[in-house]
Amino acid sequence: MQYDNDGKLKHLFSTADLSVETIRKIFSMADNFKNNAGKKTLENKNICNAFFENSTRTLCSFELAEKKLDANVVNFRSDVSATNKGETLTDTFLTLQAMGFDAFVIRHQEENFCKQIAALVDDVAIINAGDGKNEHPTQALLDAYTIAQHKPTFESLSVGIFGDIIHSRVAGSLIHMLNHLGVRDLRLVGPKTFLPKKLPYDFIQTENNMNTGLKDLDVVVMLRMQRERMTQEVTPSSEDYFAQHGLTEERLKLAKPDAIVMHPGPMNREVEIASDVADGNQSVILEQVANGVLIRMAVLSLLLD
Ligand code: CP
């Protein structure tokens, strides 16, 4: 459970049962940090970022957020850790707990890994920074926060998520987030092999044809092909993929003229998105990155203050 018995957020594993009240509170705290009105709340708090998969945006923005809040920050390095000398991950996290950490920010390839660690250690807040192809809740929060800065209400929005949906933890968390905030036109668009067979909500539509999927959208979310998570699928070449499923300026004209283009990163230019779209005036990709720091400051403050 990520909420305690009093309804306070204790961990952040998933967006599935995140209340709208919590989401709005996090947005309001992020607004305060943006306006330099948020308090530095984490003096004397000890935070360990334990990433077992590669990261640029999530790791660096968590570290920056923690330092802006005056926390003591340690980045656990799995590549040089004692796990390479046979120590189990259970012993690793019990060891880190004994050092007095107040929070672990964890990225791991195994789904629900954070829940296992939360069951192992007491009084340590756990934040999921991406677990396999399951969820990436702070990414969904920063994505929704970015949308809210451009579009007045979620209820009337048409949103499309494009590409490799089944391997994407970003999509996993964003779908729940958009549902909570009231989006009812949500399209998952991509090759058949990249679309889920089971959908979490009845109102979601799936579409293989990119041009049909783009029609009159307000928000276009592009995802990369996660080749590192693919097992059996026959992956198209980058050239074939771009020809059929890449977002070009020409295709983007099918969406509304004021549609925004998002991408959680890392981007593969000229594979899922053309450079002129990624760098164009409808792109909010770098705003997403900037908002990531504010949202992570808000989440850390909410959990630890
Ligand atoms: N969006 C995202 O998770 O990027 P990184 O892998 O760089 O953290």
Provide the fold topology:
Blueprint: H1 20-34, E1 46-51, H2 57-68, E2 72-77, H3 89-98, E3 103-108, H4 113-120, E4 125-131, H5 137-150, E5 158-162, H6 169-180, E6 185-189, E7 205-207, H7 210-214, E8 219-222, H8 238-245, H9 249-252, E9 260-262, H10 275-278, H11 285-304
Parallel strand pairs: 1-2, 1-3, 3-4, 5-6, 5-8, 6-7, 8-9
Helix pairs in contact: 1-11, 2-11, 5-6, 5-11
The structure holds phosphoric acid mono(formamide)ester.
What do these coordinates show?
There is one protein chain. With 305 residues, the chain is α/β, with parallel strands linked by helices. The protein has eleven helices and nine strands. The protein has helices at residues 20-34, 57-68, 89-98, 113-120, 137-150, 169-180, 210-214, 238-245, 249-252, 275-278, 285-304, and strands at 46-51, 72-77, 103-108, 125-131, 158-162, 185-189, 205-207, 219-222, 260-262. The strands form two sheets. It has a five-stranded parallel sheet. β5, α6 (169-180) and β6 form a beta-alpha-beta unit. α1 (20-34) crosses α11, α5 (137-150) crosses α6 and α5 (137-150) crosses α11 (285-304). The longest helix has 20 residues, at 285-304. The protein is globular. The model has no long low-confidence stretch (mean pLDDT 96). Phosphoric acid mono(formamide)ester is lined by residues 55-58, 130, 136, 139, 264-266.
